[in-house]
Design goal:
The complex is a heterodimer of chains A (about 525) and B (about 270). Chain A is of the alpha/beta class and about 525 residues long. Chain A contains 21 helices and eight strands. The longest helix of chain A has 28 residues. Chain A is globular and about 85 Å long. Chain B is about 40% helix and about 20% strand. Chain B is built from eight helices and nine strands. A five-stranded mixed β-sheet of chain B has the order 3-2-1-4-5. Chain B is globular, with a radius of gyration of 19 Å. The two termini of chain B are about 20 Å apart. The chains are: A alpha/beta (about 525), B alpha/beta (about 270).
Chain lengths: ~525, ~270
């Protein structure tokens, strides 16, 4: 009896210290989780304070233009989905404790903060209702969301907005169901249903008139595939503003084609000058890119720490922030650097103390190929359920050289280099060596046991290499787990089916037992 | 009870199989029966029937350890634990013939290629569970189109002198393609050979993806399809290893073997 009481007391103290052991039941059923995860007294406090801060950021956003933002909620179907931001952060911090929990909140809060600024500017400038701020609208240069923002560093008086980011791209990571109407709309116009859901959704959003109307001009880009050509043509017809297509050479490693990229950059700058009346400023550009370079140094430090036996950051927390800083922010906002510094200080502290990244860390993993938007927190689940720690993601491993900030000619060349290696382009363009041998190099550098191989069912670019991936992984004795998904359409492959691919491999091949059995199988088809 | 027995219950989408083995790993009793709509009912009926074949046993609780497997493995109420059918098929084949290195498992609703390690664990696997193409359901549809039993259909292709290729992968489209060919007066055995070849090619993909290259056997209900076995041998360009035990029982046998190992480990 005494022993029983002692054991109960001990497990209660453990619960107070470390929190819930099984959390699967929190994530099934309705839109949000049934309740917030209890992470032990200390970490629950950290989590709760940060949860309040996220709401604070969202409240501050609504106060920027209360009427126009409220109107946006009733006009644009994607706007209410942003109420799911706190739930999104919850999913990405699933099972986290200690330093990693703090890092997760810091990174995501910065991304949310930047997102709210974009939405606020979009709502204020929106000319749809006849009361849009025309002065602001003229200052806005719209970008394809795959396009880097660095060019805007030379136009300090203009505002660059990745146009599809908020209505389609980012919101699809927050609300898994949001792109379904877009996809259905464009397919009803005759688009084949096996087209990649990114350009499909973007074109569908144009058909459904989901974009606020604004901007002086639009910069389109060559995304990794031909689907973007279709999306750009639909969008140009809807946007009705001058468009400049950035078309970088595919074989970007070849320095002989660099001049073509440089000409494209120069052409783009000239185009922006012509349509906005603003002049390119080298001083402003260099100042912004110094900050970008500083961020890059800190990113390199993160990669270096993660290659050691004591990694300190993982999953979407790491990948999404890198993609945001590299592509969306591009060194333009000092707050991004501030967050980098804060997070790296936490990481350094953890590394010096040799802290394990999570209590349940078992396997070191790399994720490769294009990740699913509707399951952006898949790495959090991998960690919480099976102890698989995703140390690097293909999409975050982009251009890792600093940009020239002294010489104008060299700076143009560096801009062309970084733009050629934009997210989703660096590995899928320029020859198979950028995606296949590159993977084995990364696996070796990070000393990974497992590769989570995303199998985007609508991506024709990667399909041709599947057999080679299998064969070469076998030769190297690497565990390659294929996880099929359809990027933005959860109807094709559900989150549950994605998990099932990993569950089967872990049980049958690895002979593993889950860290949290309640997360192996649960129903989340209706959740955000 | 002097002897100890261990059970494996494989609740498949079409058939439910139960195997009980003794302490030496020898099969003491087995049952194969059509699955009911309710997986739990299927498991109970099949296990009751198997237990009835061993007079010393009164019910599942008399088994030293019992493992559930198959798509309905979570619905085996009397199981001590459950293990994926991929692992169980590998173990079942391994205890039947340790020289076999790979399996093509063609079940009622999926096709799997499984590469086996030296100790009977799974080295790698690949599976198609997204559509009915090349599964038992596919054969049921084809036999229906031919107005034959599955057994008759499986032997039909053996007589064919030519193979009429079936281009559709999807069960529904393949069925209409077959009906069209029959309507055109094409030879039934040659159409059947085309069907067997199309399934064999699908199996080849699974086997290749899982890394299975040598010493392959077939498991699952479709392993009894002689025409398919011949087509697979033709496509893979090797002789399929025949098992001494019913290939449909491999999942349940593997589960029973796991039960035996786990019980021994616990006792130790």
């Amino acid at each position: 009896m005494k022993q029983k009481i002692k054991n109960k007391g001990k497990s209660f103290v453990e619960w107070l210290k470390y929190g819930d052991k099984e959390i699967g039941h929190l994530y099934k059923g309705g839109l949000a989780s049934t309740r917030r995860e209890f992470r032990g007294v200390k970490d629950t406090m950290v989590d709760y304070v940060n949860w309040l801060k996220i709401w604070g950021v969202m409240m501050a956003f609504t106060s920027k233009a209360p009427y126009k933002i409220a109107r946006g909620f009733f006009t644009y179907r994607w706007m209410p989905s942003y109420l799911g931001v706190p739930a999104f952060v919850d999913r990405n911090s699933m099972g986290l404790r200690g330093n990693m929990l703090k890092i997760c909140h810091e990174n995501f809060r910065r991304v949310v903060e930047a997102g709210t600024v974009y939405i606020a500017n979009m709502m204020i400038a929106d000319t749809r209702f006849g009361d849009g701020d025309e002065e602001l609208s003229k200052k806005i240069v719209l970008f394809d969301e795959m396009t880097m923002s660095q060019i805007m560093g030379g136009f300090p008086n203009l505002i660059g907005i990745p146009y599809q980011l908020m209505p389609v791209f980012l919101v699809s990571e927050i609300d898994q169901l949001i792109c379904i109407p877009y996809i259905d709309a464009i397919e009803s116009f005759g688009l084949p249903s096996d087209t990649c859901p990114v350009p499909t959704s973007e074109a569908g959003a144009a058909v459904l008139d989901a974009y606020p109307l604004m901007g002086s001009c639009f910069i389109a880009s060559t995304m990794p595939c031909d689907g973007s050509v279709m999306a750009s043509s639909y969008q140009e017809r809807r946007f009705k503003i001058p468009t400049y297509p950035l078309c970088f050479p595919v074989r970007y490693h070849d320095e002989d084609v660099l001049f073509s990229g440089v000409e494209d950059i120069k052409g783009c700058i000239k185009f922006i000058e012509e349509h906005t009346g603003e002049k390119w400023s080298w001083d402003a550009y260099f100042e912004n890119m110094k900050r970008y370079n500083e961020e890059l140094d800190l990113e390199m430090e993160r990669w270096a720490i993660n290659k050691t036996n004591y990694p300190q950051i993982f999953g979407s927390t790491s990948a999404l922030y890198r993609e945001f800083a590299y592509q969306i922010d591009g060194g333009l906002d000092p707050r991004t650097l501030k967050t980098y510094k804060k997070v790296n200080a936490i990481m350094e502290d953890g590394y010096e103390k040799r802290l394990p990244i999570t209590r349940h860390h078992r396997y070191r993993a790399i994720v490769w190929s294009c990740p699913s938007h509707y399951y952006a927190n898949f790495p959090s689940w991998l960690s919480a359920c099976w102890g698989i720690t995703v140390l690097a993601d293909m999409e975050m491993l982009n251009y890792d050289k600093p940009l020239n900030v002294e010489d104008e000619d060299e700076a143009f060349k560096d801009l062309a280099r970084v733009y050629s290696r934009m997210v989703m382009r660096k590995h899928t363009n320029g020859g198979y060596e950028n995606v296949l041998p590159e993977l084995w190099k990364v696996v070796e550098e990070y000393n990974a046991d497992i590769v989570i191989m995303y199998q985007h069912v609508a991506c024709k670019t990667m399909v041709g290499l599947q057999g080679l991936f299998d064969e070469q992984a076998r030769e190297r004795g690497i565990h390659l787990i294929w996880v099929p998904h359809d990027l933005m359409d959860p109807r094709t492959v559900s989150r549950k089916e994605m998990r099932q691919s990993v569950n089967r491999y872990m049980e049958a091949v690895m002979g593993a037992t889950p860290v949290d059995p309640s997360l192996v199988d649960f129903d989340d088809e209706r959740t955000w | 009870m002097s002897k100890k027995y261990y059970g494996g219950c494989d609740v498949g989408s079409t058939y439910t199989k139960c195997v009980i083995i003794d302490e030496d790993g020898k099969i003491a009793a087995d049952t194969t029966m059509k699955s009911k709509m309710n997986a739990e009912v299927s498991a109970r009926l099949a296990m009751d029937e198997t237990i009835a074949k061993i007079p010393e046993l009164k019910g599942p609780e008399d088994l030293a350890y019992l493992i559930g497997t198959g798509y309905g493995r979570n619905k085996v109420p009397f199981a001590d634990e459950n293990i994926s059918e991929i692992s169980c098929h590998a173990m079942g084949v391994h205890v039947t013939n340790p020289n076999v290195k790979a399996i093509i498992d063609i079940g009622g609703q999926d096709v799997k290629g499984i590469a086996i390690d030296r100790d009977g664990t799974v080295k790698n696997f690949a599976m198609n569970d997204k559509c009915a193409a090349g599964t038992g359901r596919f054969y049921e549809a084809m036999a229906r189109a031919f107005e034959m039993s599955l057994d008759e259909f499986s032997r039909l292709s053996l007589k064919a002198k030519n193979v009429i290729p079936i281009t559709a992968q999807c069960t529904v489209f393949a069925e209409s393609e077959v009906i069209t060919l029959v309507g055109e007066g094409k030879k039934m055995d040659e159409i059947a050979a085309g069907i067997q070849m199309s399934v064999a090619k699908r199996c080849f993909v699974m086997a290749k993806k899982s890394g299975a290259t040598e010493s392959i056997t077939l498991t699952g209900g479709c392993a009894k399809n002689i025409g398919l076995k011949e087509a697979i041998e033709h496509v893979l360009k090797l002789k399929v290893v025949e098992l001494d035990t019913d290939p449909q029982l491999m999942g349940a046998l593997g589960a029973a073997e796991f039960a035996r190992q786990k019980a021994s480990a616990k006792e130790a």
